[in-house]
Amino acid sequence: MSHAATVQPHGSGAHAGHHEHHDDGSKTTMGFWIYLMSDLLIFAVLFATFAVLGNATAGGLTGKEVFELPFVLVETMLLLVSSFTFGIAMLNMYAGNKGKLIGWLVATWVLGAGFVGMEIYEFVHFIDIGASPTVSAYWSAFFTLVGTHGLHVTFGLIWILIMIDMVRRYGLDATNKRRLACLSLFWHFLDIVWICVFTFVYLLGVY
Amino acid sequence: MSHHTTSIAGHGHGDHGQDHANHGTVKSYIIGFLLSLILTFGSFGLLMVEGVPRGWILPGIMVLCVVQLLVQLVFFLHMGTSESQRDNLQAFIFAVFVIAIIVAGSLWVLHNMNANMMPGM
Lengths: 207, 121
Known about the structure:
The complex is a heterodimer.
Chain A: H1 3-7, H2 11-52, H3 63-66, H4 69-95, H5 98-128, H6 137-170, H7 174-206
Helix pairs in contact in A: 2-6, 2-7, 4-5, 4-7, 5-6, 6-7
Chain B: H1 2-11, H2 16-23, H3 26-48, H4 54-75, H5 86-115
Helix pairs in contact in B: 3-4
């Protein structure tokens, strides 16, 4: 990049430029955090909808009849471990270990893909046994809430693939670091939303 | 890449202390992960293990949920009261405030409406 060339001729100017660059990164992360907070509001509204429609099963299947906690526990473990592996990936990024960073990102991706795969299997199974979104308001709310989370994870998986490719092509430059910092927030955020999903949808559903 | 090396040299020592506070360490991730594991197994255990008094289950899973949210916010998202985190914390507290109004308000209003519906509807 031309950045290195401009450093040589005038020192102080490059320094100011550097500061600007740094500010830019932290502002992006801050802005991304505010996006996450607005995303949190979307989930809050979907949770409120689900809670309001908690008994609206129209005489059909209830969550208690179809939820299987061991299955949900495995899903939860996949997402929780993936959150941990992403954390380790970020530590390797800050330490400058490009190879390890990519390795841990791949591990995170595999775990996340396992989660999405299980969720798709679960959805297909529920629809098969007669708990589809068209059956009752309860199942509409269930598929909307859990599906929205699943879609977020899916987009996170796509983003991880893109970042693996970006890191391989351009290395650990400031842009990639900033983007990975945002992706890390996104991924941990989805794990936090899932804690509420398994508590309020599955555990309370079985209770 | 030349760009990469200059930016490392430029930041260097100045940011290092802050880096630690913001990004966590292997130790903090392991602590957060182990706590999350314990809390998750606790939540599922309350419903999956036979013989848990029914009165404990509801408050139990609520408390474990809130504690696990806090654990992950602190250990994974590095939320805290340090200067670099203050803006994020403020945005989060505001979001929680709005969420509390939306969720509690929705449940309250719609419960009332349900309760006042004609019987059998």
